[in-house]
Write a structure and sequence with these properties.
Order of helices and strands: EHEHEHEHHHEHEHEEEEHEH
Radius of gyration: 19 Å
Largest sheet: 6 strands, parallel
Distance between the termini: 33 Å
Shape: globular
Number of helices: 10
Number of strands: 11
Bound molecules: nicotinamide-adenine-dinucleotide
């Protein structure tokens, strides 16, 4: 039986530390970090994420600014809004909820965000800085994966890490973070040959595909650490809608040394890391040290 990596509990602790940092910044430096979230359209999943982000921002004592725009918003209006948020000193972090509607060039919008306020870490400059190992705002889900790994495994030096998925928002940045921790990193994807054998070499498996229970229990090396990023909504045998990851959890947890469940693993870490990025961004903009509790 493996250790269950409790992302929900870890995220709760992290949010408590963020709340302490926000209180400390108010007391010592008289400012409150602010996060602006922009939602275009009515995608139900995006609406849920945006609501949770706003609620958790306020719960840790920071300011939340929500901008909801209709699905037919044109790109120029969005460009104007990003410009305003870039100039607004009360806004330290800007998050544009993806996906954006088809008429909007997402890459243009993301790269218009002031790089210092890019708390999602998707701006091309932050992406480049991460890949050269320079200081940057790191994408939230990958940052959450790394925190859980370091907390449960400790030093990652020399570990064979296999990341399945090469997206710009999860697979690539998580690979860069693992490389920075001195892992030997293999990035697998839809064209990888003999994925089961590649996986069986891994001390660490990070699955970020979006395919329900694709990674089988017998792909996992005994004792390996498994981080399941996948969030898949399926209907189970009893007809209930349930969430499952990319890993066949029941089989994998019999072999793995430690594994994240879905839900309750990586998922809760994403918003906690977003709030942490907002505090870091605010401190940099104000020219003050990031409080030790979240440093
Ligand atoms: P994506 O669709 O952008 O990328 C999927 C990747 O998987 C691609 O690089 C593709 O090459 C690879 N892939 C597809 N089929 C494969 C196969 N058969 N074998 C090996 N690789 C294959 O997805 P994404 O945005 O990176 O998200 C991945 C999953 O993580 C999704 O389930 C998503 O919902 C979830 N996710 C969770 C969080 C969170 O926990 N907060 C955040 C982001 C994404």
């Amino acid at each position: 039986m493996s250790t269950v990596i409790d992302g929900k509990a870890y995220a709760e602790t992290l949010r408590a530390r963020i709340a302490e940092s926000a209180a400390e910044l108010k007391l010592k430096h008289d400012f409150v970090p602010g996060l602006a979230v922009v939602l275009v359209g009515e995608d139900p999943a995006s609406q849920v994420y945006v609501r949770s982000k706003a609620r958790q921002t306020v719960e840790v004592g920071m300011q939340s600014f929500e901008h909801r725009l209709p699905a037919d918003t044109d790109e120029d209006d969005l460009v104007d809004l990003i410009g305003q948020l870039n100039r607004d000193p009360a806004v330290n972090g800007i998050l544009v909820q993806l996906p954006l509607p088809k008429q909007v060039d997402s890459e243009r919008i993301i790269n218009m965000i002031d790089v210092q306020k890019d708390v999602d870490g998707f701006h091309v400059e932050n992406t480049g800085r991460l890949s050269i190992g320079a200081d940057s705002l790191v994408p939230c889900t990958p940052a959450g994966c790394l925190m859980l790994l370091k907390h449960y495994v400790g030093d990652l030096t020399g570990q064979n890490a296999v990341v399945i998925g090469r997206s710009n928002i999860v697979g690539k940045p998580v690979s860069m973070l693992l490389l920075r921790e001195h892992c030997t990193v293999t990035i697998a994807h839809s064209r990888t040959r003999d994925l089961p054998s590649v996986c069986r070499q891994a001390d660490i498996v990070v699955a970020a595909v979006g395919a329900p229970e694709m990674v089988k229990g017998d792909w996992i090396k005994p004792g390996a650490t498994v981080i399941d990023v996948g969030i898949n909504r399926i209907t189970d045998e009893s007809g209930n809608k349930v969430l499952v990851g990319d890993v066949e959890y029941d089989a994998a947890q019999k072999v793995a040394g430690a594994i994240t469940p879905v839900p309750g693993g990586v998922g809760p870490m994403t918003i906690a890391c977003l709030l942490r990025n907002t505090v870091i961004a605010a401190c940099r903009q104000q020219g003050v040290d990031v409080p030790d509790s979240i440093g």
